[in-house]
Amino acid sequence: xxxxxxxxxxxxxxxxxxxxxxxxxxxxxxxxxxxxxxxxxxxxxxxxxxxxxxxxxxxxxxxxxxxxxxxxxxxxxxxxxxxxxx
Length: 86
Prior knowledge:
86 residues, alpha+beta, 4-stranded antiparallel β-sheet, 2 helices, 4 strands, 22% helix, 38% strand
């Protein structure tokens, strides 16, 4: 695994170019969940879901979840929308 800062830099290659990390939603020894926003993604999703019965509450918001083991990232998941409360 890699350190969290290294993984953030590598993950940026797969995110929309105009993405900005808004804040960290949760951080434990095992998991870091961060919220990002992309104006381009928001525009595209707004157009796509306008006719859908299941519209996103905040188009353009997505989360990146990093799973850690011994302070190194072993898995990263990108999810459109905010994670479910629970």
